[in-house]
Amino acid sequence: MGAGDSRRRGSPSHAHPRSLRLPKGTVDVGSFATCRPQAGSDGETDSFSGYRPNVGGVLFTRRMSTHGTTLREGIATAISVLAEPVGTLAPGRLSASDYIAALREVEDLGRLVDAARIALAGEAEKRTQGPIDTLGALGYASAVDAVAMLTSAADRDAKRRIRIGESLNAGMSLTGAETGCAHPVVAASVFAGNLSIDVSTIIIDALDGVGNRVDESVLRQAEESLVELAAGTPDHPPLRADLVRGQVQLFLELIDPDGSLPREEAARRKRCLRIGRETQDGLIPVHGLLTLEVGASLKRLVDAHVRKVSFTDDPDSLVDHVDDRLPQQKRHDTLADILSAAARVKDAPELAGSAPTISVTVTQAALDAGWGVGAIDGFDTPISVQAIEKMIDSRGTQHIIFNDKGRALALGSVQRCFTPSQRRVIAARDGGCVIPGCTAPAGWCEVHHVIPWRDGGATHTDNGVLLCWGHHQSIDKGPWELSMPDGIPHVRGPGHWTWTHTTKSRSRPPSTPTG
Description:
Elements: H1 3-10, E1 27-33, E2 36-37, E3 51-52, E4 55-60, H2 66-87, H3 96-127, H4 134-137, H5 143-151, H6 155-168, H7 184-191, H8 197-210, H9 216-231, H10 241-255, H11 260-270, E5 272-275, E6 286-289, H12 292-303, H13 327-344, E7 360-361, H14 364-369, E8 373-376, E9 382-384, H15 385-395, E10 400-402, E11 408-411, H16 420-430, E12 446-449, E13 464-467, H17 469-474, E14 481-483, E15 490-493, E16 496-501
Antiparallel strand pairs: 1-4, 2-3, 5-6, 7-8, 8-9, 10-11, 12-13, 14-15, 15-16
């Protein structure tokens, strides 16, 4: 085969002018046994500098094609031009218009660079197949290993680049002609710099997921429409990746209405909830996968009660803010309220013949002193007396008397701090957590002793108020204070600098503030 024919095989046939896909090099057929580095060799080498291939099979034996040279020269020029302005970039010194323009223009540049990244990565797997493993000959364990090592990318990023690159790169037949790619419309937009890798990944994964159930012409129409929506047109701007994901789901429902059934069945098989061992800090890791309906219900329930409470700025306010919990902390506390309510339902399942109960061991001396620690049964991390007192408030106690050698001498009856009847009265009066702005309903709340139980506070409706789990944990530290004049809950705190009666009850309006 002549040199002219070889060059014609190596020349690319692009569908658009800005394609950055690399063609295969010129090939010869030989028969060799090993591959060794040829240090200082002046002869022709393949594109891996310093190596002369001598392994049997189809080999790259000529120098890099004109296309490869042009690409590398362009990359070198771009690096030299951008090195100084990027190295001296000070975003804080940019004007508003320059800042906005730079965000967009750098993203345009980044999309072109990303297109080249995935094009090159998408070729890696091919280099490991066939009669010769070019990357393996250089010591790489796999295509993923080669891309990750050469680019310093994480393995998961290397895998994604390879997978997307394979979908967008044109194939090559035995005659040397390009065979097209799996997603030509996405490829044209990506290599033109109009579509990001994140967005192209969303579209490709969605279309591939239904490819075996939907007619090819329908898939192509969906691909064209999704790319137009995502990349934008003169009539509408491009969509954010999150919005593209939503549009993709709408298209899938139209072209594959029955596809949701197998997807949901697969999701149900994967559902799980795992509760790990407690950490040294006394935190228990929880993770898992919830089905869509369960996860949506939990999210809606939690989000409905995770609200930022704010008041009009007032110079006389005791503190500058109402709730300094982070959103994730609020979600945790709301989940605690839900669990507390679930444990109190009448038909809750029993465990070992009784209602699910947390057993906490603590000495009477520690309770009397108001400091020290106890232990929750089954966990190694100690728990403070202050936390135990909060649990006694809402769950009651049962005394077990031991002698000094640890022998159990007596078991007392369960002492409920507030009976179910008292709780119903308090719930009717308060209607929910008494802290202003808190949306926790009465059924989720715990009953709190305004005068602490250890200080002789009576277990009476005149001394009990409803607090959600989060406010119950922090009530002793502020910023809120509680009082019970005439058995009516009053609060004082941010935005309420005088004692104010608050209630969420629909049958009882708040009384007027008192001085």
